[in-house]
Amino acid sequence: MASEMYTSPRFRMSVNLIGRLQQRAFILSAKHGLLSLTTQIDPYDVSLRTFDEEQLSRWQSGVVSKLKRQKRDNSVAVMLADDEYATPLDSRLKSEGFEIINPLTGLSNSARLMFLKACHHYLDRIASVGELYSIFDKLGSAGQIKTLRDALQSSLPDQGVYFFFDPKEQTRFSQTLPRLVRIGTHGVSSGSRATLRDRLRTHLGTSDGYGNHRSSVFRLHVGEALIRRDELREQYPDWGSGQNSTAAVRDKEKPLERAVSEILGSLLVCWIAVADKSAKESARSLIERLSIALFTEHLLPVEGPGSNWLGLHSKHNVIVKTGLWNLRDAGGKADVSLPRIIHTRVMKSEVGKS
After folding, report:
1. Nearest alpha carbon to residue 256 among 272, 273, 275, 237
2. Largest pairwise CA distance in the chain
3. Which of 17, 59, 83, 296 is in Cβ range 3.0-4.6 Å of 322 for a Cys bridge?
């Protein structure tokens, strides 16, 4: 078969990438023009570099003619071939109504390999996020995903990592859950005695419906986005200023604190029990960091926010780009083995309950 005649690492990575994307692949051959992967051919030694202008024109016409027979409405042709093969076809295919994407134009061979590896890694991230949502779905079926208000009325582990989901956001990774919008943990400073419940309570606010955004960066971000969306800066000029404030400032900020509590209280939250000592390099800190990185590596999310997501009004471009209410560790290097790490933790927790 034609696909077995070409053995370079870049060719194999290109074909595998197209297969993972479940798209149709074709080979550009100097001798045969356009080939399907399964076409039977004999070995040959022909290069476009030896073609004169007339030969090259005939080759182009033959390739375009065959592609036209494969064309569908709004067909997009992604060229992963060498420039000498892809470039001559660009204008001809565009004139036939194809949209052309040629991400490798002008790149060196090593840069082309790096690009293809990055594409495969991005697909690995997507697969890992899918695995993670499968774990969340199972936890939800077991009753371990609740609104933040209800979660604080439930039994919670002393230590863990939490994941917030916004009911107003959709995700392609789950039929039952909305999109993940924040990841966090608690008390990772050495000697800290803060519990998971303490941290979630700080995010929700006080029992009278208010709260303190100076004690919760999550509340800070949400409140700031509300200010920017609803043009409330004159009403709340001190929002986020300093770690302390006067009683007068806090009283003035109460309406906004209440609005933040309403929003956070309606979010769904899931938690993973992780019992360890409070330390910067604790298991909780590692899972939090890797989880954020999986969703935001290079600030390239695997799934963007909806057009009405409140976070789009954030003053932080990281939040706007990634769709997460997270700044620290956003954009870090992803580890696609994370779902296995979390699955192990979930299994340990289940064994501990039985």
Report:
1. 237
2. 85
3. 296
pTM confidence score: 0.88
pLDDT in tens, 92-111: 888 888 899 999 998 999 99
Coil/strand/helix, residue 330: coil
pLDDT at 219 exceeding the cut of 90: yes
Distance set, CA 304 to CA 114, 187, 189, 203, 218 (Å)? 24, 29, 32, 24, 19
The residue assigned the tokens 């003619």 is 65
pLDDT of the residue at 188: 64
Cα–Cα distance, 295 to 322 (Å, whole number): 8
Judge whether 280 and 190 are in contact, CB under 8 Å.
Answer: yes
User: Given the structure tokens 């789009």, which residue do they identify?
Assistant: 312
* Residues 282, 279: Cα–Cα separation, whole Å: 5
* Long-range Cβ contacts of 277-283 (<8 Å, 24+ apart): 278/187, 278/188, 278/189, 278/190, 278/191, 278/192, 278/193, 278/194, 279/188, 279/190, 280/188, 280/189, 280/190, 282/188
- Identify the helix (H) or strand (E) that includes residue 29: strand 26-29
Distance CA 24, CA 94 (A): 19
